[in-house]
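Q: I'm teaching a short session on how sequence maps to structure, and I want students to see two examples side by side rather than one. Could you give me a first protein with its sequence written out and its structure tokens following it? Keep the formatting plain so it prints cleanly on a handout.
A: Of course. Example one:
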Amino acid sequence: MYAVEAYDASDAPDERRPRPLGQYANAAAALAAAREVIEENLSLSLTAGMSAEEAYEEWRQNGEVPTIVARGGAAPLQFDPFAFARTRAQELHRRA
């Protein structure tokens, strides 16, 4: 079992409170949910006419940052939301 949580990037590190987004039975579903959170944030910025780098920076400073927590003996998952967001911003910008 995996839980996906998100915190607001604009909160100071000591004030961050993870907000639960959902529980998933497998790693693939948890990864898809975490990636969707980032894509939604980036898409809003890109729709507003920002460059890929501007959209990434907007998300990094003000967006929802998802994390994946393994529960109930599930294997830990490696997911870097910042690396994914930087790459995905470029991909989405090319499509726009």
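Q: Perfect. Now a second example for contrast.
A: Example two:
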Amino acid sequence: MNVHLSQKAVEGLFGAPLPVQEAFIKHINCLVRNLNHPSLRAKKFDESKGRWRARVNDDWRFYFTIDRDTYASVRSSPIPNSVAGRRWAAILAR
């Protein structure tokens, strides 16, 4: 399997804290090896668009689509109601 990161995913990851970036890379490697890896907790998020969601850590998720042999990451972001999500929203509001 291949991985393609969208510009939006790269920008979201670039602004994330270093531990989140490291966890994201680790989980992308898990995704390439096994979509059903337990630490990913991957599940369909939006069936009409073929979008999936997987876990980065307790506060962050990444969203992707599957097109033949490619996982295309659409975006990565904190969960809105989490502490990290509220912090992230405050940073973006500046």
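Q: What should students look for in example two?
A: Point them to this: The chain has one domain: 2-93. Also worth mentioning: The two ends are 39 Å apart (CA to CA).
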